[in-house]
Amino acid sequence: MELWLLAVGKLRPCYREACDDYLRRLGRRAKVHEVEVREAARAPTRAVQQAEEADRLRARIPPRARVVALAREGSGWTSAELADRFARWEADARPLVFLVGGSTGLDPGLVTESESVWSLGPLTLPHELARVVVVEQIYRAGTILRGEPYQLPALRGRYAGG
Prior knowledge:
Blueprint: E1 2-8, H1 13-27, E2 31-37, H2 46-58, E3 66-76, H3 79-92, E4 96-100, H4 108-113, E5 116-119, H5 127-146
Parallel strand pairs: 1-2, 1-4, 3-4, 3-5
Helix pairs in contact: 1-5, 3-5
């Protein structure tokens, strides 16, 4: 599976270290690309900022990709539900893209264009931390599908090798 993480802004060192750890682990099992686009921090309004960032993200989405936007108004998925989705997505053999917005979130139009909208819940998280959580949950979904010990004990036996 070809996996893309397209995100607005650069991570500070403490978040970068955590994100890199999970990206390294993911890279053992899938072709993983992380692309950071510049935040439009000098835009005159939030809407203009989101629109500029959306254009930068759209330009980096590979052809035929399945796009998953991270947004508060999306659906919350358990780790097991994310694993189930990954099992279906892998069968498609299409690039899989996760979009993570910057400090003002994703442009509403970009969210609407996405095939799926995933919410990490009602908590307000710094976008840098949200990116780490996304990468960790993607890694966890893979371990669930492979029946590896990293998964939650309650899920053992539900998937291969458990």
